[in-house]
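Hey, resending since the last one bounced:
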Amino acid sequence: MARKKDVAPALWAHDQSFEMSAVLETARAAYLDGRLSDSEQGLRQVLAQYPNNADAQYLLGAIAYRNRDYDMSARMMHRVVALQPRHHDALLTLGMALRAQKKPKEALPILQKAAMLKPSSLDNRFHLALAEIEAAAGVGRGAEVDRLPGRRQ
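The structure tokens again:
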């Protein structure tokens, strides 16, 4: 039978996890409300104690994407995918970030994997189609989107 003093550290660790879950949910709500800096602050608090929390990393990457920091977004999404290879939203956002960085050939296999995981995602289909067109047109090798076939000059 466990003594009270032996159980207390385990309970304290559980309380910390519960507290961080509450911080994460508050950060998620702030993100959805468009309060990105409040969300980011809470997410960094979670990651300070739980650096491999895929949910916090995903939301930080989504904030970076919304702030047009595509490099940071891609780095965060790579981390999420390393932890959870079947995380559709992370794969989609990673593909979108790579497209925004004019790297459609890198985005293609990632968006294809996301499409296999969630074939009903219209966002995924849209970005996959654009990545295919951009890759075929040479975007990222000095070509500009304005020079894509069918675009008026």
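Helices lie at 4-32, 36-49, 54-66, 70-83, 88-100, 104-117, 122-137.

Sorry for the duplicate.
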